[in-house]
Amino acid sequence: MRLVQIAQRAADLDRAARWYAQLLGAEPRARFDPPGLVFFDLGGVRLMLDRNAPAALVYLAVDDLDAAVERISGAGGVVRSQPHEIFAHADDTLGPAGTREWQAFVEDSEGNLVGLVELRAA
Q1: For the segment 68-112, what is each residue's pLDDT rounded down to a tens digit?
Q2: Element holding 18 (H helix, E strand)
Q3: Cα–Cα–Cα angle for 47, 74, 50, rounded to 5 degrees
Q4: What is the largest CA-CA distance in the chain?
Q5: pLDDT at 75
Q6: Which DSSP string corresponds to 34-93?
Q7: Which structural domain range is residue 54 located in?
Q8: What is the C-alpha to C-alpha distance for residues 48 and 33, in angstroms, rounded to an integer?
Q9: Structure pTM?
Q10: C-alpha distances in angstroms, 43 versus 3, 78, 91, 110, 121?
Q11: CATH no. for residue 78?
Q12: Which residues are CB-neighbours of 85 under 8 A, at least 6 positions away?
């Protein structure tokens, strides 16, 4: 079994599509309006922005956590939690052994909380 799609609430599709395009550095793959859906590709998993979906807490991997947070903050975005270390992976149970997991939390344009994750060498 594998994850296929994540739905995220987006009251304003245009605003949400711009916000996620900026965060992900990629334009939407598809838009269907009506009924009010925008799709992004996250490495084979679809992120669906949907006017009628409930809010979800989505965690996205980024290559440079500090730069991502700065980019969001610089664009007037809300940073709820600055980058901080969450966990050191001693084995491969939840991530590559010998890495440290860093996270930050931001709000998207619709008020949804989004976790940003970077794995750093120990």
Answers
A1: 999 999 988 899 999 999 999 999 999 999 999 999 999 999 999
A2: helix 13-24
A3: 20
A4: 48
A5: 87
A6: TTTEEEEEETTEEEEEETTSPP--EEEE-S-HHHHHHHHHHTT-EEEEEEEEEEEESSSS
A7: 5-121
A8: 13
A9: 0.91
A10: 11, 26, 25, 23, 22
A11: 3.10.180.10
A12: 100, 101, 102
